[in-house]
Structures are given as structure tokens and as C-alpha cells.
Amino acid sequence: MEKILVTTDQSTNSKAAIRFAIQLAKQRKAELIILHIYHNIKPFSWSERTFEEYEDTFIKKITAELTEFIADIYHDIHESEIQHQLVMVSNLDVVEGIMEYAIKHNCAYICISTRGAGTFTKILGTHTSKLIRSSATPVLCIPSAYHLAELKHILYASDMTDYENELKKVVAFARPIHASVEMMHISYPYEFAFDKDLMEATLQKKTAYKVSLLNPKRDITNVLLEDIDDAIKVSKPSLLVLFTHQSRSMFERLLFPSNAEEYSFYGKIPLLTFNKQEDK
Length: 280
Prior knowledge:
By secondary structure, this protein is an alpha/beta fold. It has two domains: 141 residues, HUPs (Rossmann fold, 3-Layer(aba) Sandwich); 127 residues, Rossmann fold. The protein is built from eight helices and twelve strands. Strands 3-2-1-4-6-12-10-7-8-9 form a ten-stranded mixed β-sheet, sandwiched between helices. Strands 5-11 form a two-stranded antiparallel sheet. The longest helix is centred in the first third of the chain and has 29 residues. About 9% of the residues have low confidence.
């Protein structure tokens, strides 16, 4: 059975990812794993036995709190509890703990809530951005203010350098939930204009899935973020997909715009990222 991993620190912000993960696991008929990373430091004056007793008490306390925390989320979204595991793992580095668990237990996706919306400067250096850069497991970033909605339409932003292999992963995500897929390529004036109907027919043949094409033109008076934002307003996706091994012109400029432009759609829709390490 497919496994979906969602992280929580018991904060209000983390509820968005758990709500999303519950819905996704239900749609994909997957097992849900709810992971809490913690780390306790042993005081020098404590014996090993004293510290072990403290750890046991701590784990029981946090487990009880998390159980209630998760039950409240199910109640809030009016869902009966699906099959899930509540797991606690000790690791000094939260991101390393998440990634190691995901790989060891063959999780298909990691869900994590973002702590803010608007600008990427708010998340640079956070657990979310570190996971995006480093995780071999695909990462679903759920804005903390996101209102739960059915995943109906997926927008995949491509620089066209490896779109055939990337589309296979996008379709693998979309197919079980019966979501439509749209591939977006923002083209520059010097790029060759391809035939939309022919391209869509080719994509459907290669993926055995209907894929529509969105090909807006690059407005060089805008930063790339503004062009992407404009395209998202046209497409109205439920989720945006990016690949971190795309060229500097796409993902890196999206994450690290020189003037920290507002990532306006970031606070509105979930983001699914695939990391280049996945292919190593």
C-alpha cells in the first residue's frame, strides 16, 4: 500500500498539512503516517536510567496530546478516521529525521505545512525550504491558510528540458485521484512556437493520459513570478507542480528572486516539488 507521510509539531499551522494528507490518503487509498520529530537533551547530572524514564514519560505525554490533536482535526473536517500511524522519532535535525524516515519506510510523498504566505523570504531557511532542496521523496507544501478543497486540476510548470520524464511523475500523482493535468511552458520571444493541438495529442500518446497545454508568452517587463502568477490565474489549478532540477530560469529564480518579489499564489494553493536527487 502506498504511504503518505505528514509532519506535525502540534502547531495550528501544521493542521493544514494534516487535513490535506487525510484527504489525499483517502483519495489514493493510501496509508497515512503522521510523524512528529523530537529531541530531548540528557542533563549531565542524570543517569541513563533517569533519562530513559523521562523519555518514556515524555513520549506517552506527547502521544496522548497528538492523538487528541489529530482527533480534533478529523472532527473539524467531518471525516471518520482512516487507517493511520502516529509515529514519534528522535532526531536532532528535524529535516534529516523526516527524510530518513520517508526513505526507510518507502513513503511516496511528504506533506508539510508552510508557516506563511506572500514572500519566499518568510520560508527561506525553514524546514519546508530545506525539504524542497534536499528531499529525495516528493514534497507537498501546504499553505497554513489553505482551505481544504478537492484536487481536480494540476498545473505542471515546465522548462521543457525533461518534460517527458517529469510528466510521467505528474501523471502518476494525478491518475489515482482522477485530476486533470495541464502543462505550462512560459515561452520567450525567441523560442519556436509549437502547434498546441499536435503537442497535446503527442503528450496524451506518451503518457496515456489527457494533458492540456498552456503556453503563455514571457513578458520581459515582469519578473518570472508575475508571469507564473498570471498563468495560474488563467489555469486556476488545485495544485502546482515544480521540479527542482529545472534550469535556473525556472525553479531557482522562483525560489530565490533577486528582489524577493512576492510569491502571490504561494499562500493560495498547495505546491508539489520533485527533487533531482530522486533520479540518482
